Amino acid sequence: MWKKALSAALFASGLAVSSAAFAEAPAPYQITPELEAAAKAEGKVVFYTATDVAVAEKLAEQFKTKYPGIDVQVERAGSERVFQRIGQEYSTGIYNADVIETSDAVHFEYFKRQGWLTPMVPQEVADKWPADERDPDGNFAAYRAHLSVLAYRSDLMKEEEAPKTWEDLLDPRFKDKMVKAHPGYSGTVMTSTFVLSQLLGWEYFEKLGKQNIMQVQSSTEPPKKLAQGERALEVDGNEYNVFRLIDEGKPIKIIYPDEGTPLAVGNAAVLKQAPHPNAAKLFYAYLFSLDAQQLNSDFGGLRSFHPDVKEKEGRTPLSKIKILHSDPAKLEPEIQTIKSNYEKYFGT
Amino acid sequence: MTSIAQVQGRRSGIDLSWPTFALLSLILSVLVLLPLFWLAFYSFRSDTGGGATLDNFIALVADPTLLRAYGLAIAMALGVGLLSCVVATPMAWLVARTDLPGRRIIRMLVTASFVTPPFLGAIAYEILAAPNSGLVNIIYRSVFRLDSSQYLVNIYTFGGLIFAIACFTFPYVFTLVANALDKVPSDLEDASSILGGKSMTTLRKVTIPLVLPAMLAGTLIAILQALTMFGSPAILALPAGFHVITTKIWSLFQFPPRLGLAAAAALPLLIITIILLRAQKSILGRKGYTVLGGKSGTPRVTELGRWKWAAILFVFSILSLTILLPYLAILKTAFTGTVGDPINLSTLTLSHWRFVLFEFSATQLALRNTFLLGFLTATAVTAIALIVSYLVTRRSVPGSRFLGVLATAPVAIPGIVLGVGLFLSYANPTFQLYGTIWILLIAFMTIELPAGYQQMSSAFSGVHPELEEAGRIMGASRLRTLWDITAPLLRTSVVAAWCFVFVGTIRELSATILLTTANTKLVSVIIYDLNESGDLGAICVLGIILLAASFAVVFVANRVPVLGGSQMNARG
Amino acid sequence: MAFLELDGLTKSYGSLTVVKGVNLSVDQGKLVCLLGPSGCGKTTTLRLIAGFAPANGGEIRVGGKVVSSSRGTVPPEARNMSMIFQSYALWPHMTVFENVAYGLKLRRMPQSQVTELVRTILTATQLIQLADRYPGELSGGQQQRVSLARALVIKPEILLLDEPLSNLDANLREEMRFEIRRLHDEFRYTTVYVTHDQAEAMTTADIIVVMNDGRIEQSGSPEDIYERPATEFVARFIGGTNILSGTRNDKESVLCQSGLVLRCGNGTADGTTKTAVSIRHHDIELSTKPNGANTNTTIGTVTRQIYLGSHRDYLVSIAGGEMVRTVAPVNVAIPVGQEVWLHFPPEKCRALAQ
Asked: Which of B533, B559, C75, C95 has its CA at 20 to 30 Å from residue A286's CA atom?
């Protein structure tokens, strides 16, 4: 009992010593009738995800239509909550999840080191994904990407009054107007806080903290606060949520600031202890299929690394946006500093 | 001379009280002491390398963010206590001692508001009083034709938080004071009048001092509730940009978790709670105030006369703020597109209902888990509380008072602290409890035990011990007596305690939030998760389902003839 | 051998010893009254017999078998006793019939037999019309009878009564005393009856046991106890009496503090030096003239006189400041302050060794 409790604590002590197995990525696989039959026999797949719940449920719906007889249990929470939960479960020997997906790239480095993932490469990923958007050992691949964007209510703020740059946000006229998600909760915001603190320095956040910003948790939430009209301007938030709200007809406009827009990559992987290994394999391959990726783009507003995905009219293509990339390996040691600085400047 | 054993063998009367006592001691110790042990253990454990350390306690006094969280939490709790007391006391007086119309309904409404989970109330107030999208502010702006930067109220403030919590804590003060006023014998007041005291003097010098202990005790409970509450601050304080201690402890679980610091940060909360409870007990236990149970005549009723309308207005505005408006806001949000939409035919929609009932895969599981756990917890807690309070009030086993202490102890353990303790205790493969509903059952049983025990033991002291002794001497064993005689006499109290625990369980969030996994989702947790992603419509639908189901269960429990017994006439 | 035996029975709560080595034997079929002021340990003794509390020392034997000792206690339900409580302890959720039938059902008796026995006892206690009522719907006296019926129906080896009449009003109480005695004569259960009311004890008991401060002061038939109290306490507690303390004079007389010498017809003046004399109020002869006796007589002054309908109650002060209470017929009306002569018939004076 003691040993096990301590192993739980080992998880607690953060990113502990690595014991990774570096192997060659396994050979790509395709969805075969045998795989489909085996998956059907298992009857169910459990998907831990940080994607917006409506998008994830829609995806599950489409999967169920395509492969009837396999139920999808969607467990949606913020990236850090998903991570915390899988950590608690694995350190106590509970294996509920089959496929996992979060928007914090650091997590997958950690899972990989812990040896919690099953390497597998769907044919589609092998054929079409850029090399730096998948794990060289085949443990995970970039299922989705999205930007963390500035956006505003076009009915509450005129276009010429809207900010153009990150620095603009420090203007007194935006005081009381902004909403922002939390890096302790959202992987997307953790990433964006990291890149912006490198780009603009912590003094920037210190000043931003004085703007009386409404603090929410998940990066899905600021766009919803815009939609409600609770605030006129979001400092960060998922681009895909904003796309969906614009599609619903909400008067919201996105700003891609001159300094650049932070990109969050959402990896997906199959867990080693997946209770439904075949269904997991099938679902994992399905996640990277053109169907699923196109759905993510159309309905979910997510960016895809699948080259054949057609972006909707009116959306600024990635190529036209200045992207701020982050390196998970550099972010990882900074997490505690980011959190404590953030609490210092924003109060929570 | 024959031996004892032979004599005992005459009839089947083997006394089970010792084994029962031993078993209960074991169960209660595991429920209460184990999490506290791990809490203490982890508080001395380093988060970074393992090994014993005092760093966590040093951080407790050195870390300004923790100190600030504690300071704000205490200030908030005091504010809630004060506000609850100021609002509830006059209201209790109006209901208990004046000719205000509709007194019974007012009492019922206030009692019913116990059922509302505080986190749902907080969300309702987000809908009502968020500075820009809040319905109140929208109406305010449109009535006075103000621009979008103007607002009347802002719930995302320290004051807003106090207000939103007080809405759900004032019933504690109200109930205690109203009951005390019911019991203040009117001859005490008559005595003052006969000595020449005018009615205001009598009120000031006799009535108020007599109910003062109830007022203080109720206020302390309100303070305690506020201090240990997680849901409302998580919903309202975080957007306002500050932590209270419960949310701060919760944030320590974010990656990378700092369990040792969380455990150490939880300990002062435990100590403050114990101090407050002791204070409350000593206030209520003072001599002279305990004679409140006198039977001398009906309470005197003050005629309001021309003040009647002012009183009605006062009570109505309190009820509107605490019950009517939040419920209306929840109803409106459940049936319209987004919060800010006006209500008309084009905005009415069932889309949130469709989403919750048919598209959102967690709903069914969560509803099933919630009601299963509510049922199991209520049943287990009532049973344990029944036996423990029997052993304690009848002092049939030496040392049984220890059981009473154990059963009351969890009241001093805030939910979030218990959550931490239970996670540390059961998140290991020996028990395999984390990730099952059993860990939640343990948590809920621990949390609800004090309430159940309190209700049962006061019910027990109302049953004359001779009624049980009569059963024993007629030849019934201790358990048989408990079953045949005591239990039926306690039936109404048992049903009441059961309902109380059931309602308490399905609205629990603060311990639950740390202990659920995918397969053990509860409605309260999905409400919290949905709030994090801003899905207010879905939350309101779930809230309505939760409330409707709670009321239904309580209603049914009180109507089933087997449980509710009508021929009771406890004159004995 | 007696049926119920208490042998050196001791019970203490913490440092407080409430029953201090009580010895008592009760023959089968007898009704014993434990009589004493509140706090004398009588109720505790009863509860020890019932098995509600364990004994700290000594033994209780029923029919020769030990049921309580410091080594263990047979639980109440295994003693085949029954008890009538001060509060009656009727179960408010059961009808009269159910209350009475409960003990029989516990004994796994067939339903038909239960019904028959219950009907018999309800008839004997005149409750048969009330069988379907709930206790809350009965008067105090009816409740008392239900309580009796419930206790009697199981045919206990020993019946225990704890101040059973103290909650009744005066008239009913007197009636119930005779009822209890009648039922005892009818059923002849070995009975232990606790009361603080001497009249109740006198009416009902075969044997009265006077208890004081955890000990038995005296036990005997009602006549014994009244006529021949062994101690000052018993004399005072049972019926009104005057106690005149003094010292031993010779073998048959006592020199009282007032200087009065009382020849005592019974009791023993054989105490070492200090002795007391007990004489009942109504045994003292009061007259306004010298009564011609030269012993056992003294002169005194009336200090109080009360008219009580059937008689007058006098308080007379005698030499040495001692007060003597006595009664006289209504027609003997002596005003306060007048001198009177008192005569203490020697055969009524009882010397009490201290």
From this structure: B533
User: Which among C48, C49, C37, C52 has a CA at the least distance from the CA of C89?
Assistant: C52
**How many CA atoms lie less than 13 Å away from A273 in the CB half-sphere?**
14
Parts of chain A with a pLDDT under 70: 1-23
Say how many residues make up chain A.
348
Q: Mean pLDDT in chain A?
A: 86
Least Cα separation, residue B479 to chain C (angstroms)? 11
Whether B479 has its CB under 8 Å from any CB of chain C: the answer is no
Helices (H), B520-560: 523-532, 536-559
Partners of B466 on chain C (C-beta within 8 Å) are: 85-87, 89
Half-sphere exposure of B63 (CA within 13 A, CB side): 21
Question: Does the CA dihedral A77-A81-A86-A89 come out positive or negative?
Answer: negative
Instruction: Name the residue among C75, C135, C150 with its Cβ closest to that of B15.
Output: C75
The pair of three-digit structure tokens given for residue C223, joined into one six-digit string? 């006549």
Q: Are B428 and A92 an interchain contact pair (Cβ–Cβ within 8 Å)?
A: yes
pLDDT of residue B286: 56
pLDDT digits (tens, 9 = 90+) for A95-119: 889 999 998 888 898 899 889 999 9
Q: Report the DSSP pairing between strands A178-180 and A233-234.
A: parallel
CA–CA dist B415, B438 (Å, integer): 17
Q: Please, which residues have CB within 8 angstroms of residue B476's CB and are 6 or more apart in sequence?
A: B484, B485, C77, C102, C106
Could you tell me the CA-to-CA distances from C193 to A8, C82, C84 in Å, in that order?
68, 12, 9
Q: Are B512 and B525 in contact (CB under 8 A)?
A: yes
- The verdict on B385 and B312 lying in the same domain is no
A229 in the same domain as A104: no
- Confirm or reject CATH 3.40.50.300 for domain C4-227, answering yes or no: yes
Mutate to test the interface with B, among A44, A46, A57, A76 (most CBs of B within 10 A): A76
Q: How far is C48 from chain B (nearest CA, A)?
A: 12
Cα(B455)–Cα(B500) distance, rounded to whole angstroms?
Answer: 9
Among B8, B478, B568, beta carbon nearest to C93:
B568
pLDDT-above-70 percentage for chain C: 97
CATH number of the domain to which A217 belongs: 3.40.190.10
**Residues of B numbered 500-519 whose beta carbons fall under 8 angstroms of chain C's beta carbons: which are they?**
none
Chain C residues in contact with B565 by the CB 8 A cut-off are 93
Q: Domain tally for chain B?
A: 2
Q: Are B256 and A336 a contacting pair at CB < 8 A?
A: yes
Q: Is the peptide bond before B256 cis (omega within 30 degrees of 0)?
A: yes
Residue that wins the pLDDT comparison between C12 and B297: C12
Rg (chain A; Cα; Å): 20
CA B51 to CA B49: how far, in whole Å?
A: 7
Give A14 or C56, the one with higher predicted confidence: C56
Asked if C134 lies within 8 A of B569 by C-beta distance, the reply is yes
Residue B244 clears pLDDT 60, i.e. is over it? yes
Query: How far is C278 from C162, CA to CA, in rounded Å?
Result: 30
Contact C317, C338 (CB under 8 A): no
Q: Residues B503, B115: contact at Cβ < 8 Å? A: yes
**Same domain, yes or no: A256 and A303:** no
Whether domain C240-353 has CATH 2.60.120.10: the reply is no
DSSP run (H or E) holding A72 = strand A71-76
- The whole-angstrom separation of Cα C288 and Cα C290 is 7
Q: Is the pLDDT of residue C60 over 90?
A: yes
**Per the CB < 8 Å rule, is B474 touching C103?**
yes
ipTM of the complex: 0.81
Who has greater pLDDT, C27 or B562? C27
In degrees and rounded to multiples of 5, residue C124 shows phi and psi of: -60, -30
CA angle C90/C95/C96 to nearest 5° reads 65
Q: Say whether both B387 and B413 belong to one domain.
A: yes
**Bridge partners of C242?**
C279
